[in-house]
């Protein structure tokens, strides 16, 4: 089955990316020994919230580690026309988070090794911020 993922709009890529990020975080939390739903939910918020994702994306952009294509995929999601925004986030924060999700969604099809590198960096970034 051939999927024309390079033609997906930002919202579609963000939808896929959201799932990839959630699964990554859940697997890592379970591997750390968390098993209660309440604990898993509380621990995952920083990684999956619009604010947490936007903060991380600002960090990534400041490092200038994205390829030109990766930055294009981020912008595709950031600039996508969305009908709603997060309840607890500004539109700018929400758009940056959508851009991050779009980037991850794209990489989930194009380069899973690179996707995992960026998700590992996200995990490290938030763990260091919590110390």
Explain this structure.
There is one protein chain. The chain is mainly alpha-helical and 131 residues long. The chain has a single domain, classed as Orthogonal Bundle (Ribonuclease iii, N-terminal Endonuclease Domain, Chain A), CATH 1.10.1520.10. It is 74% helix and 0% strand. The chain has six helices and no strands. The longest helix is centred in the first third of the chain and has 22 residues, at 10-31. It is globular, with a radius of gyration of 14 Å. The model has no long low-confidence stretch (mean pLDDT 93).
Q: How do you describe this structure in short?
A:
The chain is mostly helical.
Task: Name a few traits of the molecule.
single chain, 131 residues, mainly alpha, Ribonuclease iii, N-terminal Endonuclease Domain, Chain A
Distance between the termini: 45 Å
Please tell me the overall pLDDT.
93
The tally of structural domains comes to 1
Query: Low-confidence runs (pLDDT<50, min 5 residues)?
Result: none
Count the beta strands: 0
Number of helices: 6
What is the CATH architecture assignment? Orthogonal Bundle
Helix and strand sequence: HHHHHH
Radius of gyration: 14 Å
Helix content, binned percent: over 70%
Biggest β-sheet: count, sense, barrel?
none
Structural class: mainly alpha
What is the percentage of strand-forming residues?
under 5%
Mass-distribution shape: globular
Write down the CATH topology: Ribonuclease iii, N-terminal Endonuclease Domain, Chain A
| CATH homolog superfamily | Ribonuclease III domain
Write the layout of secondary structure elements.
Layout: H1 10-31, H2 37-48, H3 50-63, H4 68-78, H5 91-110, H6 112-129
Helix pairs in contact: 1-2, 1-4, 1-5, 2-3, 3-5, 4-5, 5-6
């Amino acid at each position: 089955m051939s999927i024309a993922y390079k033609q997906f709009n930002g919202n579609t890529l963000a939808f896929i990316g959201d799932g990839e990020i959630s699964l990554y975080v859940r697997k890592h939390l379970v591997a750390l020994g968390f098993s209660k739903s309440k604990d898993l939910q509380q621990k995952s918020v920083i990684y999956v919230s619009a604010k947490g994702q936007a903060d991380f994306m600002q960090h990534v952009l400041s490092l200038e580690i994205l390829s030109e294509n990766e930055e294009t995929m981020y912008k595709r999601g950031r600039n996508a026309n969305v009908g709603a925004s997060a309840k607890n986030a500004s539109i700018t924060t929400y758009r940056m988070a959508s851009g991050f999700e779009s980037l991850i969604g794209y990489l989930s099809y194009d380069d899973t090794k690179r996707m995992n590198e960026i998700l590992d960096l996200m995990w490290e970034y938030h763990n260091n911020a919590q110390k």
